[in-house]
Design a protein that fits this description.
By secondary structure, this protein is an alpha+beta fold. The protein has helices spanning 27-42, 47-52, 125-131, and strands at 6-11, 59-66, 75-86, 89-97, 103-112.
Length: 142
């Protein structure tokens, strides 16, 4: 059985909002990045620590489905879990909901593992071992 999805909390700031008082659409990518970074940290090593070991994980594709607007001062729950690990590829799914548990966003990001020279390389075995218990095929988190 897979471990529960990692959950990161974020309060929407005024700077993230448009004049219509909803998060500007592209800012969601920043929220996903923050949640993914905290997920890595919860596994024992930050993205910077992986970079120091010669591995970075650039996004090569992303998909976002906007379900409802998030507004200034909303408290968002951002769930993140890996959905695929394969040699040099790593993919994550996300579910963002507000304090009323209303779905705000569903997303996926697709990454490769690369060295600092930007050439693809195998995912570090240590990272793969830490991610495997969290993998689920997509859809909703446990």
């Amino acid at each position: 059985m897979a471990a529960p999805a990692f959950r990161h909390t974020h309060r929407v700031t005024y700077a993230e909002c448009t004049l219509g008082n909803h998060i500007y659409y592209a800012r969601y990518l920043d929220l996903l990045e923050a949640a993914r970074g905290e997920f890595f940290r919860s596994l024992g090593a930050s993205a910077l620590q992986w970079q120091d070991q010669g591995a970075v994980f650039p996004v090569i594709e992303c998909r976002l489905r906007y379900r409802a607007p998030a507004r200034y001062d909303d408290v968002l729950s951002i769930e993140v879990w890996p959905i695929a690990i394969d040699k040099i590829r790593l993919s994550f799914a996300y579910r963002v909901s507000n304090q009323a548990d209303k779905p705000i966003l569903e997303a996926e990001t697709f990454h490769i593992c690369a060295g600092l020279d930007e050439k693809p390389k195998r995912l570090p075995e240590e990272l793969v071992a830490k991610l495997r218990p969290h993998v689920r095929s997509g859809g909703e988190p446990a």
